[in-house]
Specification:
Shape: elongated
Strand content: under 5%
Oligomer: single chain
Distance between the termini: 40 Å
Helix content: over 70%
Largest sheet: none
Order of helices and strands: HHHHHHHHHHH
Number of strands: 0
Number of helices: 11
Structural class: mainly alpha
């Protein structure tokens, strides 16, 4: 319980929004932990942190998406291939490329709101020279919407969430990891 109280105490501080932003940038490039994992403690600890934390996640997502796009655009032969080989397979990347060519914006929306790894799509978009403005705009709208819904639900049910986080912290952490692995599993099956 002391660990949970310590996490909730630290996450209620103003500077924690920067942590959320940074971790969401990392999630958009290489990390497989959903941003909601970083958003939840701050909102549960302090209801007034909902908007700053949600905005931090949205901004971090756009910045991370732009970096992943740049990797695909300029560094595909080195960093892009390394990321794909370590976090997916080239076959999955080529499949994503084909799906992206066929469905474009729909694929951006799908990866923005589901556990399908957004980073793979962002690298693919850069590699394919997909229009950056459209990619970032659609990503920003739907990823912000996703974070906004989570933020609103946590804000609305903050008291109950606080009780649940304290009571089921281990199960929630395991659930978040399972959620991330589900995204990898979906990518694997595609």
């Amino acid at each position: 319980m002391r660990l949970i109280d310590s996490i909730l105490d630290k996450s209620s501080k103003k500077w924690y929004s920067w942590v959320v932003c940074f971790m969401t940038i990392c999630e958009s490039i290489f990390l497989f932990i959903p941003p909601e994992v970083f958003m939840t403690p701050a909102i549960v600890a302090n209801k007034r942190r909902t908007v700053p934390v949600t905005v931090a996640a949205a901004v971090g997502s756009v910045i991370g998406g732009a970096i992943a796009y740049a990797i695909g655009y300029w560094l595909f032969d080195s960093v892009g291939i390394w990321l794909i080989e370590h976090f997916a397979t080239m076959e999955k990347f080529l499949y994503t490329k084909d799906m992206f060519t066929q469905y474009g914006i729909l694929i951006i929306i799908l990866t923005a709101v589901t556990p399908i790894p957004y980073k793979l799509l962002a690298i693919c978009a850069g590699f394919m020279k997909y229009p950056l403005f459209i990619f970032l705009l659609v990503s920003a709208i739907f990823r912000t919407g996703r974070f906004g819904i989570i933020g609103f639900l946590l804000w609305k049910f903050q008291e109950k969430a606080n009780e649940l986080v304290k009571k089921y912290s281990l199960q929630i952490t395991i659930g978040a990891i399972v959620f991330a692995l589900l995204g990898l599993g979906i990518l694997y099956l595609i």
